[in-house]
Amino acid sequence: MSQRRGFLSDYETVQERIAKFYAKYPDGRIATELVSDPGNWERCRFKALLYRNFEDQTPLAAGHATGAMDEANAVNKAFHEENAESSAIGRALANAGFAPKGSASSRVEESSIKGRPDEGEHPVLQVIWDKAQGLGITPKHMKALLMQEFGVPTSKALNDVQIAQLAETFEQVDSLEEFEALLQDVALLN
User: What mean pLDDT do residues 177-185 have?
Assistant: First the structure.
């Protein structure tokens, strides 16, 4: 696993999980399929199936993910299908046990949780949200921080540099009180 600092140290990329899968199942295979309308260029849904070997007809695990073109996010504007396919593979790998403890949920599933402050597809955003939730940081708190630091109410509008800045901020936070101390304008919580 590549070197990561702080609370991101447990995050494993799909590429790292794929390597673990093939280490355990050298003759295994990963099959993906676009299961949504191929004519819809703005939204897509992928299915990924893992097999222990090439001849196996029964999948070890399955995963699904949805992607959407997002004009505000350069990566999802150009590569939402690739991101959805990778997310489906990551979800299948997590379902097969190739994920750190406690991180089996996919970004797509996490983004559908009611009250989530954003629906970002970036993997670091899920890690940030997981930590925030664990500390008792509410969507209202997240919105206040995003407005204060970046002038946006949702992390969907953040670029990769801003996401990295947000991750650095969260590496310094170990409690709700420490998070609230970061907020310069408490009125933003109202």
Answer: 75
